[in-house]
Amino acid sequence: MKALILAGGFGTRLRPLTLTQAKPLVEFANKPMVMHQMEALAAVGVDTHEVRIGIKILFSSETEPLGTAGKSLSLARKHLEGDEPFFVLNSDVICDFPFSDMMAYHKLHGKQGTIAVTKVEEPSKYGVVVYDEEQGLIHEFVEKPQEYVGNKINAGMYILNPLFSTLFHKVPAPLRKRCSRQWSRLSQRQPTLSSSSQQAGGFIGCEVILWSKHHSPVLIDKSAHIGNGVTIGPNVVIGGNVCIEDGVRVQNSTILSDTIIRNHSFINSSIIGRKCSIGRWVRIENECVIGEDVVVKDELYLNGAQVLPHKSIASSVPEPVIIM
């Protein structure tokens, strides 16, 4: 069985994190997003056997951006030849990947394609799928509708028959498969924070000082160092080789790998990028996003700041602003 992961795009809605790293490689719950997908695919038999997760990876590159579906399938067509259906995934989707259920449904209805949809509270932010509830046949896709047409959106997961890749523009729209499980497309800061916390179910792989406090859910890489009197959680992810010094408080936040948070700082509702150095007695809150390799000096306050990579912050940022 094969799968096509669509990994194009510039990742603009995840900047500044994607200014130094491709969006599929941005860590989610201490693992690159695309790795979550590949492991889930391998678990259901996507298996050309190679590399450490047991699948063979082939790359099909565009010389210029050509859109999501038709051109991508055309470029990858030679890799998708055969008799079996294949999966297609957007690379920015994280969920528990109901691939087995999707494949069973696909074989049951016997049509050329299946698409997973999921229910959202604010459909105006997404592409809405309008379909027949009884037959499952899709009538149309409405991108970011201004008026209510439905609340089921494209979940970014498909199953297609081999014929589909060669006749993409000629076959009817695929049937749908409702995705009722936890789903998130990582394209904005707040969903990234909340989705990571939903994946973090407890304390994982970290030796910590006994008098440090943790409030579940937290996910801590086993290589992280946690100092004395530290309070972590709830809803915190701490990446590999992170150093949290004494007296630090972290809640509702993600700290990416190789970052140091120095003594008595406070991080709330923010993302701290890779290889950052956060000084002593610093307060960072209100959905700050700190890019890679940023230095924040001691005793500063950052409120809702978006800081581009490789910056040195020497003064407080009391109002939300982009620091370039």
Automatic annotation (TrEMBL):
<dbReference type="InterPro" id="IPR005835">
    <property type="entry name" value="NTP_transferase_dom"/>
</dbReference>
<protein>
    <submittedName>
        <fullName>Nucleotidyl transferase domain-containing protein</fullName>
    </submittedName>
</protein>
<feature type="domain" description="Nucleotidyl transferase">
    <location>
        <begin position="2"/>
        <end position="162"/>
    </location>
</feature>
<dbReference type="InterPro" id="IPR050486">
    <property type="entry name" value="Mannose-1P_guanyltransferase"/>
</dbReference>
<dbReference type="Pfam" id="PF25087">
    <property type="entry name" value="GMPPB_C"/>
</dbReference>
<dbReference type="GO" id="GO:0016740">
    <property type="term" value="F:transferase activity"/>
</dbReference>
<dbReference type="InterPro" id="IPR018357">
    <property type="entry name" value="Hexapep_transf_CS"/>
</dbReference>
<feature type="domain" description="Mannose-1-phosphate guanyltransferase C-terminal">
    <location>
        <begin position="216"/>
        <end position="323"/>
    </location>
</feature>
<dbReference type="InterPro" id="IPR056729">
    <property type="entry name" value="GMPPB_C"/>
</dbReference>
<dbReference type="InterPro" id="IPR029044">
    <property type="entry name" value="Nucleotide-diphossugar_trans"/>
</dbReference>
<dbReference type="Pfam" id="PF00483">
    <property type="entry name" value="NTP_transferase"/>
</dbReference>
<comment type="similarity">
    <text>Belongs to the transferase hexapeptide repeat family.</text>
</comment>
